[in-house]
């Protein structure tokens, strides 16, 4: 369990970056200033994806939080004796289970796109997908440290603003609005709209060929965002990748424009890259500019293969890991973290920046099917959880959903969310800016 303890503690320090060391011991030794209960079990010595027993729920900060792995029934999670604190729940084992992605690493269940399904997860089974349980586990440790050492730990992302937002855009389609929106217009009997879309297509300006317009919409809020471009326009076993060729000058010209305006460009690894060696590097080269991060198309991610491929490709970050079917916390956290290398039993170098919300999730017929008026009320509790911990809200709004013809998860919903985030005091950063802050923290992040 030493490797597990070292890994989890490192992720805790990534968030708070304290400028001093703490005497923390995993196990009750009656000596260390912070002692964390280590339960005796063999779960992590085997390969079962899910605990056999249901969780025990503790209330922490008015929120019921699930605990597994021999969690005892206790009245108080932390007890203080003199200058020592004893945490009576095994927060290390529980945090490790979710941060490492244990359930999907060992589960064989995959959907038609090769993804671990939300319906198979513990979050779905026990209905806590919008609760960042790892941050609650960490908050227990944070509280014990603050009490024993007489200081205040602050999230490294919460110094400039109460919390941070990373707005992102996957550029999948730039040439097919005339067909998708056109068919919709015909079904609704809106012939003039269909005619306009068709004329746009014929003139070489499809309604979804709109990256400059997306830039303008984002700049209305005096912020920047991160764009992920597909560099593969070939289908894979009938599954579409890009409907445009990034090497063509009209599309490639967007990349220096984004850089000039302080936006970030990342690679949107095509459907084959998450499980095929060297493919990601090949696609990065097609962008012909420095790229620091990736998000895989269709959010495809194979835990036993993909992290190593990201490491080999030299990515500073990946931001794929969210569920397509539901917004929330796939790995239980609202902060970037490092995935666990099960073979080497240590953290991978790159940061995983978890994806909390995707526009397609909100209205897709196979997913939540929310109306425009239902979207913001539905996600507000999740946003409040992120704000509570000074975390990072990462969300995806595709370029095609900036079209005025999308009346569900389109520009109206986008602007409502943006206005709410600014009302709540969120700061906005590109993903690289957030990861750089975690890799190179500066300044004092605790106060006496």
Automatic annotation (TrEMBL):
GO aspect biological process, one term:
carbohydrate metabolic process
Q: Which domain of life is it from?
A: Bacteria
* Parts forming coiled coils: none
Q: Where are the transmembrane segments?
A: none
Pfam families in the cross-refs: DUF7033 (PF23019)
Domain annotation DUF7033: ranges: 88-174
What name goes with this protein?
DUF7033 domain-containing protein
Provenance organism? Adhaeribacter radiodurans
């Amino acid at each position: 369990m030493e490797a597990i303890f070292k890994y989890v503690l490192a992720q805790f320090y990534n968030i708070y970056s304290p400028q001093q060391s703490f005497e923390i011991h995993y196990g009750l030794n009656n000596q260390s200033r912070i002692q964390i209960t280590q339960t005796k079990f063999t779960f992590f010595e085997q390969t079962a994806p899910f605990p056999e027993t249901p969780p025990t729920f503790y209330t922490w900060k008015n929120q019921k939080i699930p605990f597994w792995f021999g969690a005892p029934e206790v009245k108080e999670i932390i007890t203080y004796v003199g200058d020592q604190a004893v945490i009576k729940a095994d927060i290390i084992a529980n945090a490790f289970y979710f941060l490492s992605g244990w359930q999907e690493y060992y589960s064989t269940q995959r959907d038609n796109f090769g993804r671990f399904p939300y319906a198979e997860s513990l979050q779905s089974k026990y209905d806590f997908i919008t609760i960042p349980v790892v941050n609650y586990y960490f908050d227990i440790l944070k509280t014990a440290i603050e009490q024993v050492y007489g200081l205040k730990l602050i999230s490294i992302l919460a110094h400039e603003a109460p919390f941070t937002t990373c707005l992102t855009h996957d550029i999948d389609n730039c040439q097919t609005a005339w067909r998708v929106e056109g068919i919709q217009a015909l079904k609704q009997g809106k012939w003039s709209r269909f005619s306009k879309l068709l004329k746009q297509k014929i003139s070489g300006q499809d309604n979804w060929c709109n990256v400059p317009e997306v830039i303008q919409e984002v700049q209305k809020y005096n912020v920047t965002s991160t764009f992920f471009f597909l560099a593969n326009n070939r289908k894979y076993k009938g599954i579409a990748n890009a409907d445009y060729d990034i090497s063509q000058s009209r599309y490639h010209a967007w990349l220096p424009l984004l850089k000039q305006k302080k936006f970030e460009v990342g690679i949107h690894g095509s459907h084959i890259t998450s499980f095929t060696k060297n493919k990601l590097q090949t696609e990065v080269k097609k962008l012909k500019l420095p790229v620091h991060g990736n998000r895989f198309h269709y959010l495809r991610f194979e835990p036993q293969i993909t992290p190593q491929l990201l490491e080999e490709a030299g990515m500073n970050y990946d931001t794929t890991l969210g569920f397509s079917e539901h917004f929330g916390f796939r790995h239980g956290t609202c902060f970037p973290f490092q995935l666990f290398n099960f073979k080497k039993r240590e953290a991978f170098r790159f940061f995983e920046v978890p994806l909390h919300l995707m526009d397609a999730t909100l209205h897709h017929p196979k997913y939540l099917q929310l109306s425009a008026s239902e979207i913001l009320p539905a996600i507000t509790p999740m946003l409040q959880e992120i704000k509570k911990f000074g975390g990072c809200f990462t969300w995806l709004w595709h370029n095609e959903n900036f079209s005025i013809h999308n009346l569900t998860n389109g520009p109206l919903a986008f602007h409502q969310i943006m206005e709410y985030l600014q009302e709540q005091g969120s700061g906005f950063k590109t993903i690289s800016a957030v990861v750089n802050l975690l890799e190179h923290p500066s300044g004092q992040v605790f106060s006496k």
